[in-house]
Amino acid sequence: MTKLHKKIVLTGACGNLGMEIRATLAALADTLVSVDISDAPATLLDNETFVQADCSKLDEVLPLMEGANIAVHFASIADERPFEDLLGPNFLSSYNVWEAGHRHGVQRVIYASSVHAVGMVENAAGADLDVDHAPDTFYGLAKCFTEDLGKLYWAKRGMESVHLRIFSCTKVPQNARALRTWLSFDDLRHLVDRSVTATTTGFTVVYGVSDNDRAPVNNDKAAFLGYKPKDNAENWADSLLASAAPADPSDRAQMCIGGPFATIPLGESGVAAIKAMAPAEQAATDDAKKLPSFLTKKGMNP
């Protein structure tokens, strides 16, 4: 069977989300080249090869892009850190992927951006895709940089890109905030598939969020991608809200779409803040994973 592309390069292939999309990308290309600074996965797909490389070094990225049609750039430190720690993995790596891709004629880059590029926007703002950048951390600033980098390479070099502003991507919703922000693994794979298979994209931003009743953003202006998420965090609402923290409109972690990243000091881990959940809320999350079979059939990934 003829694949859509000859070669797709995936950076960050051994990360949590990279591992979830490898099979999706392999199904779209004759060859998938998976790249990570870590060791290779235990098992590779039939048409997958692995290269251990540091994306913060241009000379290691350049040969990867030779003959590639699509680059999917998921390599980064996926948390807030001091700026100096993020400079190579989160800023320079993006430049290297775009520049190496340009030199080798890559058609399009799919980038794992983040809600944290606009993390200081309030939930109540109803943000669409034209909302101004409002990073909540140095990590979010790196996402803004790469979105602007993609916009620049489209305007000056005709290189397409799709920037996925990924929200809370987990197997099941983990806390009350995720009722707004959850992205299921199935919907992530669907979003990546649509970003790769779209006939043309130019420079495009799209929110990586499932079909949640309480989603604080909308993707109307990226409808041409054909991304139609199916999963809905509302199926976990009763369990997650039962022990959620009281509503506090003075708490920016509750009011802003970046959640705890909106209140942590610059350079300090936001993931640690998210994990520091009250025991009762964590117990509710654990209970929420025990879903009835009818939800399993709806693709809820329990």
Automatic annotation (TrEMBL):
The keyword DNA damage does not apply. Residues 282-302 are annotated as: Disordered. It comes from the Bacteria. Keywords: NAD, Oxidoreductase. This is NAD(P)-dependent oxidoreductase. Belongs to the NAD(P)-dependent epimerase/dehydratase family. InterPro entries: Epimerase_deHydtase, NAD(P)-bd_dom_sf. Pfam families: Epimerase. Residues 8-168 form the NAD-dependent epimerase/dehydratase domain. The keyword NAD applies.
